[in-house]
Each structure stands twice: as structure tokens, then as C-alpha cells.
Amino acid sequence: MSLLEVRDLIAGYGPVRVLHGVTFNVDEGEVVVILGANGAGKTTTLRALSGMIPAKGVVAFAGHSIVGWQTDRIATAGVGHVPQGRGTLSDLTVHDNLLLGAYSRRDRAQINADIERWYAIFPRLGERRMQAAGSMSGGEQQMLAIARALMSRPRLVLLDEPSLGLAPIVTQELFRTLGDLNREDGVSMLVVEQNAGLALGIAKRGYVLEVGRIVVSGSADELAHNDDVRRAYLGI
Amino acid sequence: MRSRRQLQVLALATAVVVLAFLIVLPHQYGSTNTTRWAQALYIGVAAMGLNLLTGYNGQVSIGHGAFFGLGAYTSALLVNQHGWQFLPTLLVAGPLCFLVGVAVGFPALRVKGLYLALVTLGLAVLFPDLTKHYVHVTGGTNLVAMTGSELAPPAWVPTSVSAIGRDDQWAYYVTLAIAIGLFLAAMFIIRSRFGRALIAVRDHEAAAATVGINTSFVKVSAFAISALYAGLAGSCSVLVDHLANADKVQTFQISIEFLVAVVIGGTATVVGPLVGGWLVVFLQHWISDSLPKHVGSISVLKRTLANPAASPAIFGIILILFVFVLPDGLVGGVRRLVSRIGRGDVNDIQPSTTPLTT
């Protein structure tokens, strides 16, 4: 059984339906990427999975049906979310942001050890631990958002366009780190991206979302060689 | 890091000096001044609570005068109509205001910003009508006027605290004790996991939910806690002023005074609202009592200040200046100054040469 099983997911904003029955799955330890243009429904998919907007259909996470759950309950059940725009808590320090990431945990000693680990992985966060998070650069804030989401030790992390607004070299570093984290910690990832090249580089499988429907699915390799995908998302 | 340590020592030393001053104060001042200080303290207590809601949690209320009034009426009626001692009424007024805060906090979840401000304004408008409907005491009105003997200290209080004719000392010390207790509670709340959650919900509600924070619970709790602070402040006001009263102007005005105390003292600082409460009370007295004496023989100024509209107008102008000169309040301004002297400009952010990741 998959870690995350999504079938016929329907969601939208008020009367506007954005997702018209989306079906996919993420296995334990897998990185899965969903590609799609602006307005295809990538962010909406992640928001529906996290319970930020009402949704219909089947969403099974680790054997629980989580459709209709509140966001905080889904988070506590083991789904981390790196929201679009990073969701930085600007006035809090970097350290407090990371502590908040561990909000659902009570093992204080282990929490502090985890924070030190993130400072080792992202030295820039360590340097700025007592600085207001909002004063950091976009790349640093993205690192913080990822570290914060992983502070809860989730089984699955949802990443909403992590490359958005970042310099190409920063994006490359970011995806390399994500790949490392997946290999070392075995945390599953669902990444939605427009930057197909880098995302497919760390993914095992992928899907293409168009106007609220999955139109292509396959292994990362197959997608990278699919003519339609290459034309639309790899700019070749 | 060493300068951080020095700042902590400095803050602790300041706290000890201020506390010592507050403890000996009634023995140095007459009853008029002691009462004024007690008033500053209870305004400060209500403002501390409002700051937890507005400053730390981002929910603006301009109706906390209603909770203040509820606390005041609870204590006043229990003492005046049911013959209670004053102190036990706190155990009723506090929890009651907390519960009403929960009841108001739930509908408040549905509205934000200006709309929330309007809803809370409704509370301030509604409360005086409720008291007029249900309370008929002094001359059949909703005014509860009380005598000194009703509010006299219990027998176990040493007479050095309650010398004959100085009930104001008793009222002052009770208010001071409550202010200190609630100040420490606010410190504890802000440094706790719940305190971080308050700020997270203010800064970015959606992101707060994604780390597992139950945002509804946090917002309703903030409302209830701030209502408890305002209610206990109201109870203290009965002990200090010997009356409970609610008319529309007054309930609205005191709601605004709490907000003013938060803003000029320092939003989202624990001690700011207490300083702000002091400023609100003493500035207004200074303008109406002392300022006219200082202008001496300049007759134009004298005539202007004699106008009853002059005091509020001058107070208003001072508030505007405050917001321009110290946008983060008195405490925020002092904090900026100290950290600038201590370790260079806080806004100086050093560019880093370390790569983003290893």
C-alpha cells in the first residue's frame, strides 16, 4: 500500500472548481514530482492534501482517510508542508521558527539535537539563528521553510515550487540537498514544480497536471524523454 | 553574547529598583497620588491582556471595556448586594470573564482586522445597555456606588498597610499584587510554546497550521486570556474607585485607553502596556492639573487651557507625536536605543560568505 493514495480528488475555491478528479500516489521513501504550468492546479492539490481548502475524493495517508481533517491534525499525523512563498514567520527568529516546526513534538533534548543538525546542513541558518527570519534572503528563507517542515519528522513532505524566485545556482543547491535528505532520512517527498529539469533529477516518478487533470504519468526517466513534456516544461 | 548577559543584568537591576519604588510608594505619597498609581496599574493590567491578544496574536479589539466592566460589576454586586469580602470576588470575576471571552472568541474566529474591530466595538456598545437592563442599585440606576467599609481590608491585614483613613493603601497593594502576578504570567506565556504559537498565528496563519498549530484554539484562548486580564483589572477598579458604572461613552473610552496604553507603551513587549497604562493616566492628569500652572502669566495660554476641550485635545496631540517619534512604543524605542549602544545597529545585517548548504 502506498504512503499517500489520492483518488478522484476534487477541490477548488468557492464555486470555482480547480481540480477535476486527480489520481496519483506516493510510496514510502519516494520522491514524486507533479509538473504543470501556472494555473494547472499544483498549489491547489497540495492545499487540498493539507486540508487548507475543502476537498472531495479519496485521500489516504498511512492508512487513514484524511479528507476533511483540519490542517494541524494532518500535520501532526506526519505530513509536512513547505508552502508557496515559504510561509516564513518573519518576526520570529530563525531558532524560534525551527522550534515551531517541532510544535507537535515533546522530546525536548531530541528537538535541540535536530535543530543543531539543521544548522550543520544549512550553515547560513546557524549564523543567523537569533536574527528575525524575515530579514533573510529568499534562498535562506526557503532553506528555513524546508528545515522547519522537517523538524516535525514527517513521513511525507509537500513542497510547493521550492525553486520559485530563487537564483538558478541556489535552486541547484536546494535540489541537491533535497535529494540527500530523501536518501539519508528516507523521507518521502511530493514536489510540485515548473522547473522540470531539476525536479525530475531527484524524483523517481512524476505526473503532469493540466487544467486540474493528470494527463501524463511515468517514471522520471520516461517523463524526461517524453516529447510533450520536453516541449512544455524543459524548453527543448 | 557578553553584552546580552549585561543587558539581562541591567534589566533585572531595573526591575528590582522599580519594584522597591512601587512597594514603598504609598508611604511616600498621600492618598490622591496613591490612588492615581493604582489606577495606572489597573489600566496597565487590562492593557497587558489586550497586548496578548492584539500585539502578540494580531486580533484587534476595541471592546475590552466590556470585559473590564463585567469584572467590575461582578465584584461590585457580590460585595454590595451579597455581602462578600472583596478578595473572593476575584475568583468569580476572573473565571467568568475568561468564559465570556471564550464565548466571544468563537464568533471572532470568523472575522479579521477591521471587521473584528467592529464586532468588538459592538461589545462595548452592548454592555452598558445590559447593565441598565439588569442592574438597578443606587437610586434605581446601573451605578453601583460603595462605601469604604464595604471594601475595607479583611482583619488579617496588618494595620501598617491599612492605617485608618488609608484604604487607598490596601487597594493599591492588592492591585500591585495582581499586576505583578499577571505580569509574570504574561512573561511565562510569551516564552512558552503557546507564546510562539500566538506570534506564528499572527504572522502567518496558514503556515502556523502546517506545523501542527490548532489556530482556532490559539485564537480563542488568546481572547479568553485577555478577557480575564481585563476583568481582573475591572475588579481592581472597584476596590480603587469604590464604584462600578457603565455608560456608553465611558465603556468606549476605556476600551480605547487600553489600546492607547498598548501602542504608546510598546506593542508586543511584556512590560510596555504597564508603562503605557501609567502614561495614559498620568499624562491626562498632568495636562489638566499641572500644565495650567506651568504656563504662568501668559494669559492667552491660560485662557486656552481653561477651555474644557483643551485637555483631550492636548492629549490627542501628544499621542500623535508619540506614534510618529516612537512607532514601536516607549519600550520598543528604549530597547532599540540600548541595543544600538550595546552592539552596533541592530538593523546591520552582515552579508555572509558561507555557501547556503554544505
Our count of helices of chain A gives: 10
H/E element order of chain B:
HHHHHEHHHHEHHHHH
Shape of chain B: globular
Stretches with pLDDT under 50, minimum 5 residues of chain B: 345-351
Shape, principal axes of CA atoms of chain A: globular
Report the average pLDDT across residues of chain A.
92
Query: Roughly how many Å is the radius of gyration of chain B?
Result: 22 Å
* Topology, number of strands of chain A: 10
Our estimate of the beta-strand percent of chain A is 25-35%
Tell me the CATH architecture of the domain at 4-89 and 155-233 in chain A. Answer: 3-Layer(aba) Sandwich
Q: Considering DSSP H and I runs of 4 or more, what fraction of the residues of chain B is helical?
A: over 70%
Characterize this entry briefly.
The complex is a heterodimer of chains A (236) and B (358). Chain A has 236 residues and is α/β, with parallel strands linked by helices.
Tell me what the structure shows.
The complex is a heterodimer of chains A (236) and B (358). Helix content of chain A is 39%, strand content 27%. Chain A is of the alpha/beta class. Chain A has a domain at 4-89 and 155-233: 3-Layer(aba) Sandwich (Rossmann fold), CATH 3.40.50.300. A six-stranded mixed beta sheet of chain A has the order 6-7-8-3-9-10, sandwiched between helices. In chain A, strands 2-1-4-5 form a four-stranded antiparallel beta sheet, with helices on one face. In chain A, α3 packs parallel to α6 (138-150). The longest helix of chain A has 18 residues, at 168-185. Chain B has a domain at 21-258. Chain B has helices at 2-28, 31-56, 64-82, 86-108, 113-134, 167-191, 193-203, 205-210, 215-241, 248-265, 272-294, 299-306, 310-325, 329-343; strands at residues 144-145, 243-244. In chain B, α3 (64-82) runs antiparallel to α4 (86-108). The interface between A and B is medium-sized, with 43 and 25 residues.
List keywords for this structure.
heterodimer; A: 236 residues; alpha/beta; Rossmann fold; six-stranded mixed β-sheet; B: 358 residues; mainly alpha; two-stranded antiparallel ribbon; 2 strands
